[in-house]
Each structure stands twice: as C-alpha cells, then as structure tokens.
Design brief:
single chain; mainly alpha; Ribonucleotide Reductase, subunit A; about 70% helix; globular
C-alpha cells in the first residue's frame, strides 16, 4: 500500500483562527523528534548489524518518521510564519545526540531494544490520537490522524520483530517488564525537553526541569481516558502480560491518576 505524502494533505484548508498556542508549542517540539528519525535508524542498524531484514524495516520506519517531522514542521510554519523549522532542527541536533557509535543495544538485549521501540510507538500512537481529537485546526487534525495510524502500524512492526527475537533470547516476563519500564522512564530524559527548548526558541541556557515541565504540562492536557486505556493495553502486551483484565484496569486507573496529578502540578507551576 502506498504511503501518504505531504501532497496528500490539503494545506489550503489551514485555518489560522483555530490554532491553539499551547498545541503549537508541543507540535514544534514533536516535529524535532520525528524529523530525527534517520539517526535512530543508524543506531538500530548498528545494533542489528547482522539482520538485513530488520535493517530494511528500520530504514523504512525512519523514512516515515522523518516525513512526520516535515509535515508537523510545515504546519507549524503556517501557524507561525516567523518560525524557522530548519534552524530549530539544527539547534536541536546540535544539542541532543543519540549514541550513534553504539554496536550493542543500550537495553542489554535485542528483545529489550524492540520492547523499548514498542513502548515508544505506544506513546506516539496514543499521543497523536489524543492530539488529533484535541486540535480544532483541520489540517493539524488530518496530519495527526495520519501519523497516529502510522504509529499503530509501527508498533505492530516492532512487536513482530520482538516476538522473533524473544523465541531465541527467551527473556523472562520480569526482564521484559524491566525493559519496558526503563523506556518509560526515558520519557523523562532530555529528548522531549530539549526538543521543546530548541523548537520554541527558549532563551537562556538549557534547563531540563523547566522545559520538561513546559512540554509535559501542555501535552498531558490532550489525553482522555480512552487514550490511556489503549496505551496501557499495548504496553502490557509488549512486556508479556495480558492486555486486558484486572491488571489492565488497575494500571489504567493508576496511569490516569498520575497523569492528572502531573498535569495539574505543571499547570500550577506556570501560573
């Protein structure tokens, strides 16, 4: 099936009166991370250096991620004509570096690496689904729906390869859970906070805490319970647990509670 391109988006439908400044700020940040997909492909191809099947899949995935970044960046330039996407991306890549010289997974095993990729795709698919519903600007809605569909497909891609490696490496459920939790905590690392800093032209030296708070305080507001419920199910499946049942209900309630608390705390911090 032919993948969508930027020409498939009706840019003429853009409505500047429906741009939300807070959503614009997090879209700018997201465009940095998505546009950086080629560096992720380099890292993954190094880790899976003897697996041409996966390398081909990783390169195809990265090309789609780069397109996501370009689509979001083009929309942000329509919303803010003074914003320079290329300059912001250079600022981001100058300050945030991936471990491109790594030859082994930073997660210890290839199965663990693929679980981590599943966790990332879980987060992005739920995020863009939530953003598509929260946005009222029609072009951004369309872009986010397209990206969300891609991210769900990417989850299935990494899950299939993870299953293939799991038959060989046979990680126990708790080691798989540890890999998943580890990647969740990485969501608090410098990538998104630095992307927010670079994309939004924040003045002064980079401060992770304040930029993470600025990004997350805006991003968390777009989530609704059904987005969290689906994300929890996908996460449980990736780490080897049943994606429904009592554990799913408990984890969904806990995650919803934590997100609400953090969103409220970040909102108060900006008052």
């Amino acid at each position: 099936m032919k993948h969508w391109t930027l020409d498939d988006i009706d840019w003429s439908a853009f409505d500047p009166s429906k741009v939300d400044p807070d959503i614009l700020a997090i879209v700018k940040a997201a465009s940095m991370v998505e546009r950086n997909g080629l560096d992720y492909a380099t890292y993954l191809c190094n880790v899976f250096d003897d697996d041409p099947e996966f390398q081909e899949a990783a390169r195809g995935w990265a090309a789609e991620e780069v397109q996501h970044g370009r689509a979001l960046g083009r929309w942000a330039q329509l919303a803010d004509p003074a914003w320079d996407f290329a300059a912001a991306f250079k600022r981001f890549t100058d300050g945030y570096k991936l471990p491109l010289d790594a030859t082994r997974s930073v997660r210890g095993t290839r199965t663990g690496e693929l679980i981590a990729r599943c966790i990332v795709e879980t987060g992005t698919s739920s995020y863009y689904s939530a953003l598509a519903e929260a946005a009222i600007e029609p072009v951004l809605k369309d872009i986010c729906r397209k990206i969300a569909a891609d991210e769900f497909r990417h989850y299935k891609l990494f899950y299939a390869h993870m299953t293939r490696y799991q038959t060989v490496e046979r990680l126990g459920r708790w080691r798989r859970l540890a890999a998943g939790i580890g990647r969740m905590f990485e969501a608090e690392d410098d990538e998104l906070s630095y992307a927010y800093y670079a994309a939004n032209g924040v003045r002064g030296p980079y401060d992770r805490r304040s930029n993470a708070r600025a990004y997350a305080g805006r991003a968390y507001r777009v989530y609704r319970p059904w987005h969290i419920e689906r994300a929890v199910g996908m996460t449980l499946k990736a780490v080897g647990f049943k994606p429904n049942g009592r554990l799913h209900r408990f984890a969904t309630q806990l995650t919803s509670h934590l997100l609400q608390r953090r969103a409220l705390a970040y909102a108060r911090a900006e008052i």
